[in-house]
């Protein structure tokens, strides 16, 4: 289960996000980028954030900590913006919080160097969860303290919008030619050798257990939240086999020399990354 906190203050909306995420403070004195259940994208976006975010972290990739945020819409009463008011009113109960990384910058492929190994791990992971939202147009990665952090997995696992065909989707190829890290020569073979054996049913079951029941109930065709969790485990587990061979990278592009100042890029941390997750593999 994710740590649960209670929202104490709505700070400001993040207008660059399509789902109107907001910065929210909570009773643990944390500050979180919050994705709301009342957003038009629906609760499956939040399920995808939890399953993919927790899985990525357990595989040793950097993802800001996730929490479930209990929200009383009353905290939005003073909000001048009607769109925000309505979103908060529609989002009473549990919402998803991601630890806010103060001072982080959006990843810019022309400004930051990423090793072939790290690029390989990220692309392989995105192929596993069918993430179509890490293109050079919208990288959904942040650079913080010189390291690359993954955010925004809400559009992943597209197959969970149609469970009847989900199992068949597990065998589908993944086109990474638009991926923001494709120009870095991702080493997919190395990533697969390292990560595939770690994506076990046991790990996937633990990750699926982190999704709150209330985002899983009443899914047509499933009696219980656990039955639905099992379906996520089955599709992801089936997808691992031979995944690297199903990824298309497109032609290798010659990258320009980085123009970024050295203070931003000189201290990328070596692999494996230290992780705060006690259960996390790769420590
Ligand atoms: N943990 C974080 N720390 C700091 N800033 C963040 C964090 N998460 C998100 N942001 C900022 O908020 C923006 C929107 O977040 P995110 O991409 O997750 O929202 P979204 O509504 O799913 O966006 P979209 O679907 O339009 O890409 C990011 O581009 C980034 O600038
Ligand atoms: Mg985004």
From TrEMBL:
InterPro entries recorded for this chain? HipA_2 (IPR046748)
Annotated HipA-like kinase domain ranges read: 14-230
Q: Output the superkingdom of the source species.
A: Bacteria
User: Which Pfam families does this chain map to?
Assistant: HipA_2
Could you tell me where the Basic and acidic residues compositional bias lies?
274-283
According to the record, the residues making up region (Disordered) are 252-283
The name of this protein is HipA-like kinase domain-containing protein
Organism, as annotated:
Streptomyces solicavernae
């Amino acid at each position: 289960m994710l740590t649960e906190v209670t929202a104490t203050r709505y700070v400001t909306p993040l207008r660059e996000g399509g789902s109107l995420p907001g910065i929210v403070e909570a009773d643990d004195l944390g500050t979180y980028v919050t994705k709301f259940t009342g957003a038009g994208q629906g609760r499956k976006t939040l399920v995808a954030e939890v399953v993919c975010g927790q899985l990525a972290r357990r595989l040793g990739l950097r993802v800001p900590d996730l929490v479930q945020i209990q929200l009383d819409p009353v905290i939005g009463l003073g909000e001048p913006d009607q769109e925000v008011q309505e979103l908060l009113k529609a989002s009473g109960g549990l919402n998803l919080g991601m630890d806010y990384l103060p001072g982080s910058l959006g990843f810019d492929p022309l400004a930051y160097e990423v090793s072939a190994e790290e690029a390989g791990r990220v692309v392989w992971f995105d192929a596993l969860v069918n993430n179509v939202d890490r293109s050079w147009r919208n990288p959904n990665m942040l650079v913080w303290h010189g390291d690359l952090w993954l955010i925004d997995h809400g559009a992943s696992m597209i197959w969970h919008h149609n469970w009847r065909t989900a199992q068949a989707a597990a065998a589908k190829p993944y086109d990474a030619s638009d991926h923001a890290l494709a120009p870095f020569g991702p080493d997919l073979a190395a990533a697969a050798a390292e990560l595939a054996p770690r994506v076990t049913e046991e790990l996937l079951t633990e990750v699926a257990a982190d999704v709150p029941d209330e985002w899983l109930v009443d899914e047509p065709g499933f009696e219980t939240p656990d039955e639905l969790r099992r379906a996520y485990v089955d599709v992801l587990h089936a997808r691992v086999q031979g995944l690297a061979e199903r990824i298309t990278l497109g032609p290798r592009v010659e990258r320009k020399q980085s123009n970024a100042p050295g203070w931003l890029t000189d201290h990328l941390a070596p692999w494996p990354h230290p992780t705060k997750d006690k259960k996390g593999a790769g420590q």
